[in-house]
């Protein structure tokens, strides 16, 4: 499925859009990490929590549970929340 | 290129031989990292950077065992923490395959996540590729492969007693409680120290298998229980390379010296001028003279402004183990300079005379080529400086 990548993570993908597969959001992020090693830990902490300033949307709806099932036609959008200074 | 303005001092042959190695000053800031390459006389400096523009770099360290491998502890406001590694002096960087991360908590238990790696310590010359890292919140980690993969080191990260002493995020420094000052006894691979802000100073004599607090003689903020490690806030600890039985410490509550095998710290800051006090962040020791150390005091009165006292920054040196202190401010601003220097942002090189370096919260990099007698500004207008290390390239 299509995964849109925010600018802060494009050092890994070198593009704004990636393709990844998996039956759940967690599996998609694991697949993404196989393709772009290190990218998952920048978004998901070691306890399996989405990091504070990362938001993930599936077909326009925010998802907080990584076990959410996904279909191959779904679109995943990863967003960096505004923060810092 | 940025030039310092110090006069060249006459050097002896031994010094000239030592200077043949190229000096580099590693500057880690809130917005990226810079390398300042010095000439043989440490008189002119070439800026190389920014590296990782926009990343918070807490520490940038050159491996003294090969003189070419750099590790950078990094994060950004949006993304999780990581460690970058370069084997070509920053021309290319590669991310650690497994950055420091706490163990996954058992189901239902609150687990901790590393917010940022704060401190990097390369291990002894006899332990190539071994590094230690301290994190925020407090955690101790080790790499056996030059910083590519990291594992929790020893039991303290998940030890109930240590977790209690670490306190909560609210007990720590403003941007998170930290484990720092990981110190390896160069003579004994089983002997290790570390410090936590807050959480106190701790020592292991069995290679990190077990740890004990090392707190006797240290003051805590009035009203708190000094027997409780949680309330201790060591800011920076250094071991003397010329006498590893001697440690110096800049603490939230004073400057101390410890001469092993004694386990009682002595508050040597009591001999500092009263109007300046003995509060600060960094502590620097002389590479060859264990009686000489430097501090950079800050205002720790009333509401703790944490600026230079009276807006007049100065380094203070002791040449006698802390019996007396000498103010060293020639070349530094004489008024209206309200910056301070963080715990990792002051260091010494190994030259003779020793070069001293510090980076300010206002983004200035200062150096002295004569052990603090006279200071010059190497760089201005950098982001807030978090760490400064002086190193020699292979």
Please provide a written account of the structure:
Chain A is an alpha+beta fold and about 80 residues long. Chain A has helices spanning about 10-15, 25-35, 40-45, and strands at about 1-5, 15-20, 55-60, 60, 75-80. Chain A has a single domain, classed as Roll (Ubiquitin-like (UB roll)). Chain A is about 25% helix and about 20% strand. In chain A, strands 2-1-5-3-4 form a five-stranded mixed β-sheet, with no helix packed on it. In chain A, a hairpin with a 2-residue loop joins strand 3 (about 55-60) and strand 4 (about 60). The longest helix of chain A has 11 residues, at about 25-35. The model of chain A has no long low-confidence stretch (mean pLDDT about 95). Chain B is mostly beta strands. In chain B, the strands form seven sheets. A five-stranded antiparallel β-sheet of chain B has the order 1-4-3-2-29, with no helix packed on it. A four-stranded antiparallel β-sheet of chain B has the order 5-6-7-8, with no helix packed on it. A four-stranded antiparallel β-sheet of chain B has the order 9-10-11-12, with no helix packed on it. The two termini of chain B are about 20 Å apart.
